[in-house]
Amino acid sequence: MSKFTVVIPFHDYAHYLRECLQSLRDSRCHDFDVLIVLDHPSCDVDDLIDSYSDLSIQVCSSLEKTGVASCRNIGIEKAQSPYIYFLDSDDYVLEDTFSHLISHLDHQDMVYGTIHNTWNNKANFLDKLSKKEIDSDDLLEKEQIRQEKIQDHMEKFSAVDPEKMKAIYHTMIKRQGLQTVSALSCLYRKDFLLENAIFFEEDLRYFSDQLFLSKVLEKASSFLYEEEACYIKRKHNDPINEPSLNQEENDQRFYERCDMIERARSELDAQGPVRYYLDKKMIRYFCQTMTKHIRRSPEDKWRKEYFVCMQKTLEDSDPRVLDDLKKKSRRLVAPMLLGDLKGVQKAIRYDFGKTKLKNIFRNKNMNTLYKLAYYHRYLKLPIKENVVLFETFMAKNYSDSPKYIYEALNRMYPGKYECVWAINGKHEIPYGAKTVKRFSFQYAYYLAVSKYLVFNVRQPLWYRKREGQIFLETWHGTPLKRLVFDQEEVTSASPKYKEQFYKQRKEWDYLVSANPFSSKTFRSCFMYEGKMLEYGYPRNDILYAPNKEELSLQIKKKLGIPLDKKTILYAPTWRDDEHYGKGEYKFTLALDLQKMKTMLQKEYVLLLRTHHYIADKIDTTGLEGFAYNLSNYDDISEIYLITDICITDYSSVFFDYANLKRPILFYTYDIEKYKNQLRGFYIDMNTEVPGPLLYTSEEVIDAILHIGMIQKRYQKRYDAFYDRFCCFDDGAASENIVKEVFD
Ligand code: C2G
Fold this sequence. Notes:
Blueprint: E1 4-10, H1 14-25, E2 32-38, H2 46-50, E3 57-61, H3 68-78, E4 83-86, E5 92-93, H4 97-102, E6 110-118, H5 122-131, H6 136-156, H7 162-173, E7 186-189, H8 190-195, H9 208-219, E8 223-234, H10 251-267, H11 273-296, H12 305-315, H13 319-323, H14 327-337, H15 341-362, H16 369-376, E9 384-391, H17 400-412, E10 418-422, E11 434-436, H18 441-449, E12 450-455, E13 470-473, H19 497-505, E14 510-512, H20 516-525, E15 531-533, H21 548-559, E16 566-570, E17 579-581, E18 584-585, H22 593-600, E19 604-608, E20 627-629, H23 636-641, E21 645-648, H24 653-657, E22 664-667, H25 671-678, E23 693-694, H26 697-705, H27 707-725, H28 733-742
Helix pairs in contact: 7-11, 9-10, 10-11, 10-12, 11-15, 14-15, 16-18, 17-28, 22-26, 26-27
The structure holds [cytidine-5'-phosphate] glycerylphosphoric acid ester.
[cytidine-5'-phosphate] glycerylphosphoric acid ester binds near residues 475, 572, 573, 611 and 653.
């Protein structure tokens, strides 16, 4: 007989279940059997489960009932081993989780480990973990603080067994809020559960864990803590399409929380620590989350039905908790207990104002003041019908499609529109546009009053679209790398990326698409439902300019590029997992520039161009006369014009450059990681891109030396690529878009 049974309820999302089972297969300890309880699954997972037959899996169904609680109860009844471990099908364990968990197993009622929350799959979780710098002094200090805290709680409940208090601390007190108090990451002795009739309450959808764990903590008499036994709890990064239970917000959830507390109170020792800490968490929830909603929610229920329910729940609170409240919470709880909504609102306003002021004075650059002006003043001003606000790449430069739309607008309707550019630093902008610094008072003002907004990335999260405003989103590339809702993992950006994107894309009235492929992809990856402008990219108009030879000569002269040499452009993209801070990415040049210089300098010069996210500067010392760093040049479209051969990797650069029908090489030294771990692609890089994939500097040099041969070899593929991706571009995109949006 195995030592424990892993009980996995399954309802939805087979891809998570695969990772969960894979983590069991990868476990070093195999002293367990698996019981999968199918809860009316939304997809067929028979084949998937069969492919893990080495795991000694038993499958059963929860036919009449539904919900995690019922499935887990089936698990308790059917488990064949002396211990039970609950594992959710969207979570996973690490290789040594179980070895740690059973290393000192000796008839304890409950053995508990730790829970780590993550937005990532196992590979990315481990990757991030390996990059974390561990400061041993810091660890020591944290451990000391933790011990002191446990000691304080033990002293408060000195009559309670210290091991029990330790368990209460780790599984309940330490976990933030009520929601994170969970039955996971523990081994439970099956007979202990049965003897004490401890089951999950099946009518609770969201809060059965808290009640179950409370009963275990109250009734168990022997505990063991295995800190190294990690349970990895995955948060779902797509709450729109794949919400987890914790991400569902509805009335039931609110009332259940209060209901669960009532039930716990009637079953737990009134003088015991478990009841005390549950009540404490409940009051904290009221003081933090509820007050936020009472203040700002447009839904009246927070000030009506919910408020009444909250008052009722508070009335039966443990008096010890009320006595222990800090001043700030007391200020809120006192009127709550009396059902005095006005009193609560007054206390909230007082606290809110105090915190706001504190933040403003603490923050020396007065960072939040322009937002206050935006919400409280600028949004109340009338919209200015002839004002257009432009922004490219978070105001870093004057380039991309907004630049070309702006110039077309001024050519077509001279003087009709007052144009404002959000741009940081000095840039040459024709037609005398007004410029404002991003995230300044003036920026906030124009965000609020401009009739038209033309952006090539997302608008700020704090922007509120007003009725009458027209938002033209140009985006900034044909998608090769998977985007937003098509991305399973979000390794860069905020983990709330999808949720935020969902809200932001609803504010777009128009989205520019460069080809039918983009139109189709944008519909799925952005869940975009608005108007699609299928005229090609305004930024590519210049590539069809009748005087492009002349323009090219001017640009070369401006940049000091020798006129007697051919040019190679190297324009790679950024890597999601290599960053210093928000929006600041690392880039290590993998091309051997010295070797390139030796082999190619007779005929070529090299133009280097990093993505605007990259903070690292490329060092070109010793490469003078051969390598030119154009990373700070505003407009890459102008660089395309002067480029004879383009080298890129997974950047959308090649979709645009292909309009010139000049040769493209792909330096894809890290393609496996990029494809499998970081992003994944929409098209097959091996068979669909218009040039060879190269993996070493030598291969790149060789391809350049034999560029004629390469061109011949890839001609057919290039033609097909051009027809598919460059079919909208005809040099008139800007004018067509201006006509459609501004006419
Ligand atoms: N770009 C540039 N220099 C580089 C790389 C990119 O100037 N070295 C510009 C190009 O105009 C490119 C755009 O930035 O088309 C977007 O860059 P990508 O490398 O494609 O990466 P990303 O910003 O992640 O956008 O749908 C497209 C995607 O959103 C990709």
